[in-house]
Amino acid sequence: MPRLTRTASLGVIIALVLLMLFGAWRYDGFMSSYNILSVLRYNSMFALVALGMCFVIMTGGIDLSVGSVAALSSVVAAYLSPYGVLAGLLAGLAAGGLAGALNGFIITRMKIMPFIATLAVMLAASGTALLLANNQSVSVSYESGFVELGQGDLLSAFRPEWVDAEDAGWTGTLLGFVLGFPTPAWIMLAAYLGGWILLNHTAFGRHVLGVGGGEEASRLMGLPTDRTVFQVYLLSGLLAGLAGVILAAQFGAGQPIEGVGWELFAIASVVVGGTLLTGGNGSVGATLAGTLLLGIIFTILNFENGMGWISLSAYWQSVVRGAFLLVVVLLQSRLARRVQAA
Amino acid sequence: MKSAVQTGMPVGEQPGGRFRQLFGTRLAVRRFGTLIALILLILFNLAFTPNFATAQTLSVNLTQVCTIVIVGVGMTLVIATGGIDLSVGSLMAIAGALSPGIFQGTLFPVPDLYTGIALGIVIPIAVAGLFGLFNGWLISSFNIQPIIATLILFIAGRGIAQVWTNGDLQVFKVPEMQAIAIGRVLGVPFQVWIMLAVVVIAAWVLRKTVFGRQILAVGGNAPAARLAGVPSRRVICLVYVVSGVCSGIAGLIVIAMNSAADANLIGMGMELDAIAAVAVGGTLLSGGRATIIGTLLGALIIQLVRYTLLANGVPDPAALVVKAALIILAVWLQRQDRA
């Protein structure tokens, strides 16, 4: 890992820890199992989208279609949810994969720059989602167990009653936490572990960084640049599709107009995590930290309102996030200069 | 040839008649291809769409396209420098949210109605320009990538507008203010005149001034431009200020048209509409080549395609898919032309 990325990654993790400590100090229950698990559940789908975006950005590209693709996938998954968890899941993944493949095709075969290609697919996915959904939400089936993907806790069936007793102690708390870990969060962790392995321990990962470092140079060295780029957008589409499935399961309905702005939130998460938009370096773990960092801001604002001293409307959330992104970006800029000078 | 394209040098300055002729021909095809597409669309509608050839139809389509063109002009200049501006929709919301409090005299006292309106127009536009300057400052002074720098205001800007208004709808009944959008001069809505003025001024600046050539130089090859003495930082700051000003103007037109300012909705998705118009119009997204008239034509084509579909019974969401295909086709054809 290049020095710049390592330093920036460490920075985001430190910031995340500091924010958590601040929350724990200032608010009762901030570090409770319930709150932590709620934050993880809600932010899992954004984390999945950010993971795909991280790979795309490492190749020097961009993917604006992820939000619309998630919306489309949520609609498709909702329609097939009556046929079971697996049917809904695979349908959503297929929709996302198709969109990702379309992005990859347009970028590698038609040689259109990523910003434009993914902008167009964003519009196409959004239009398709609205057409399929007939301009309204599509309810999922509650009989098939599909909603467990978003609302369930994977290991809750094994949860013994005694962990909720007051005298259960730390053992009970810890066991309750693990067994109460949300299904979407397990999916998120699995995806990030897979992403980390892909990036650091496969030829694909080396190709991704190689393409981002210099596409023409990579091509001259014999790296399969077009295939790598195609696969990266396919991966981003699949992850957006997975996020869409969780969205449908969590909300209980496919949402054709959800997903607005997700792509920019994902970009912000990746940037906060220290990955440079010029490509050629990046960190999977730091992207996860970046996502959680931005997500925690929402939680802190809620707790702050709960204390009753001030009344911050929900609108402050985006102001604070923007300000936070500004600070991070300025620090990174200064850091980048220092590294270059070294 | 390549350097000429990158630096945006006028055709007339190229040595050799053959190169001039060849270059001119390609330029003509590129430029008029968009116009030809527009003409074909109009002819199709004249033949197949009932009531197409009416003043009402013309008026509706033009008014729907005005704000996109105005924002698109600023976006064109930004893209010409190789940048992008995602904050335009948010800046529209800020300008739109700020204005009613000024011209209604609720923010601070105003001596009379017309002074209030004048201030309600000038101050929000200036504020939007300042936010644009903020973008330019981040990009030119800190070497932050445009998509990231403008992402900050994309995220925070609408929040600022919402916090300012507490998310409330601000309704007003001030016909004199509404006039800037729906008032008519020579039978044409005033916002159309504003759009035309913005387009003409920008096209002139881009083609006929040193600043315009500097914009294209920065976008074509920034290091070479710097070595040639072009004040890159100042040029970049200025184009983002212009983009902010255009957004401010568009935001005011939106609220004037609606007699209401809704910070939640003003300019939503406008950055994508503007970028689409710029792309379809023939401006190179990587910078170095730009056409203001192309952006106008691009926006008109997109609007006309949507109108054509709606008028012939196709549901609106399908227009999004067609718009996507149109963008890809336009950009792809441009690439073929350059190959």
Write the layout of secondary structure elements.
The complex is a heterodimer of chains A (342) and B (339).
Chain A: H1 3-26, H2 33-58, H3 66-80, H4 85-108, H5 114-133, E1 138-139, H6 148-151, H7 169-179, H8 183-201, H9 203-213, H10 215-220, H11 225-251, E2 253-254, H12 262-272, H13 284-306, H14 316-341
Antiparallel strand pairs in A: 1-2
Helix pairs in contact in A: 1-13, 2-8, 2-9, 2-11, 2-12, 2-13, 3-4, 3-5, 3-11, 4-5, 4-11, 8-9, 9-11, 12-13, 13-14
Chain B: H1 2-7, H2 17-48, H3 55-80, H4 88-103, H5 113-141, H6 146-165, E1 169-171, H7 175-182, E2 184-185, E3 188-189, H8 190-208, H9 210-220, H10 222-227, H11 232-258, E4 260-262, H12 270-280, H13 292-311, H14 316-338
Antiparallel strand pairs in B: 1-4, 2-3
What does the model show?
The complex is a heterodimer of chains A (342) and B (339). Chain A is built from 14 helices and two strands, in the order H-H-H-H-H-E-H-H-H-H-H-H-E-H-H-H. The two termini of chain A are 17 Å apart. The radius of gyration of chain A is 20 Å and the shape is globular. By secondary structure, chain A is mainly α. Helix content of chain A is 72%, strand content 1%. In chain A, helix 4 (85-108) packs antiparallel against helix 5 (114-133), helix 4 (85-108) packs antiparallel against helix 11 (225-251) and helix 13 (284-306) packs antiparallel against helix 14 (316-341). By secondary structure, chain B is mainly α. Helices cover 75% and strands 3% of the residues of chain B. Chain B contains 14 helices and four strands. Chain B has helices spanning 2-7, 17-48, 55-80, 88-103, 113-141, 146-165, 175-182, 190-208, 210-220, 222-227, 232-258, 270-280, 292-311, 316-338; strands spanning 169-171, 184-185, 188-189, 260-262. A two-stranded antiparallel sheet of chain B has the order 1-4. In chain B, strands 2-3 form a two-stranded antiparallel sheet. In chain B, a hairpin with a 2-residue loop joins strand 2 (184-185) and strand 3 (188-189). The radius of gyration of chain B is 20 Å and the shape is globular. The two termini of chain B are 13 Å apart. The model of chain B is unreliable at 1-22 (pLDDT under 50). The interface between A and B is large, with 48 and 47 residues.
